[in-house]
Design brief:
8-stranded antiparallel beta sheet; alpha+beta
Length: 357
């Protein structure tokens, strides 16, 4: 109370700063945001905005010896902040097994089995996902390697890269438009998804591209062209369903509220972490935002005297505690991410502020 009365500038400035930090860290304060997945014009596709996600109602068997995934998609905007997921497959715990995503205008295919080394985990195709362009992407893989087809033509071949694991069937939940934890939003339209258990050759790729793009072909007709099809999703629902698996198996769930499959608390960056301009900006904001907090809290606690080592340690602990409260709260806000890096850099900002006093 003595400090409240003796230094009103520090008191009110500190109180205002704490409010600003809490608002910035916890907005939009929505614990059940609307899932922004809508039908495209004509009801033959799904449009994804932030926050948006769709996933299979249960686990699917994606194959063992060979696998092909087709996606007819249209990117809605540039994706410069991390790798946005068009399609992802997660295990029972919500961990990604592999994904097909977009970074800037490039298509990225990455596998993420636990224990895999960082090398040889990723394939890329440049300029395959420019905003506003519609493409048919086919990723076909077996123990002999992986091929990526774009609009019926080979775009990338990797003989030593396979999504599958020898002797083990690929099981998991299909996720569209986002990562299982909801932190890698993709913007655009998915007009169809086909999954079948065989390798695709160049002749097949050309035939299927013409079938997909043919004006007279229905989604069921295209599914029939995939001999041995495991799954084929049509997005124009029937009997009140928004999406159905025409080949059997679990339907696609589009929840009314945004609910990722996995909630991460104090996420630690993995091997796939990319330090881009957006991450550097976030780091700077996390540090700079807590520097005045450390300085003003020192001013408030010190009173008429100088800040002792004990005072500075108290300030650092309180700054770290405030950041920890925000990060733990963010774990329950579906549109925010709880990161240990934010905690570290917020605390670093507090240390700098305390030392500047």
């Amino acid at each position: 109370m003595r400090n409240l009365l003796k230094n009103p500038f520090a008191t009110f400035s500190l109180a205002a700063l704490v409010v600003v930090i809490l608002v910035a860290g916890l907005r939009p304060f929505d614990f059940a945001p609307k899932n922004r997945v809508t039908h495209t014009v004509g009801q033959d596709g799904l449009r994804f905005s932030r926050p948006g996600i769709a996933y299979s109602a249960g686990e699917m068997r994606f194959g063992e010896g060979a696998l092909t995934i087709e996606i007819l998609f249209r990117s809605g905007r540039g994706h410069n902040h991390g790798i946005a997921r068009i399609l992802s497959v997660s295990d029972a715990d919500g961990n990604e097994i592999f994904f097909i995503g977009v970074w800037r205008s490039s298509i990225i295919v990455r596998k993420g089995y636990a224990g895999d080394s960082g090398r040889g985990r990723e394939l890329g195709v440049k300029d395959a996902a420019r905003a506003g362009e519609t493409h048919l992407l086919a990723v076909t893989t077996s123990k002999d390697g992986t091929s990526i087809f774009l609009d019926g033509k080979i775009a990338r071949e990797a003989p030593n890269f396979s999504i599958l694991r020898e002797g083990a069937p690929l099981m998991g939940r299909l996720v569209l438009g986002n990562s299982p934890d909801g932190s890698n939003q993709w913007y655009g339209e998915i007009l169809g998804v086909g999954i079948f258990n065989r390798r695709m050759d160049p002749a097949d790729a050309g035939d299927r591209y013409r079938a997909w793009m043919g004006a007279g072909e229905s989604r069921k007709d295209i599914a029939d062209l995939a001999d041995g099809s495991a799954s084929f999703f049509a997005f124009q629902g029937s009997s009140g369903r928004l999406a159905a698996n025409l080949a059997g198996g679990p339907d696609l769930v589009i929840p009314a509220t945004f609910r990722p499959l996995k909630r991460k608390i104090l996420e630690v960056p993995g091997k796939g972490y990319r330090l881009d301009r957006s991450q550097v900006k976030d780091i700077i904001l996390n540090v700079v935002g807590f520097v005045p907090f450390g300085f003003l809290l020192c001013l408030f606690l010190a009173g008429d005297g100088g800040a002792t080592i004990r005072t500075r340690l108290t300030v650092v602990l309180l700054g770290g505690g405030l950041s920890l409260f925000i990060e733990l709260s963010q774990a329950f806000l579906p549109t925010r991410s709880s990161s240990v890096l934010d905690l570290v850099f917020n605390t670093l900002g507090t240390v700098i502020g305390a030392m500047l006093f």
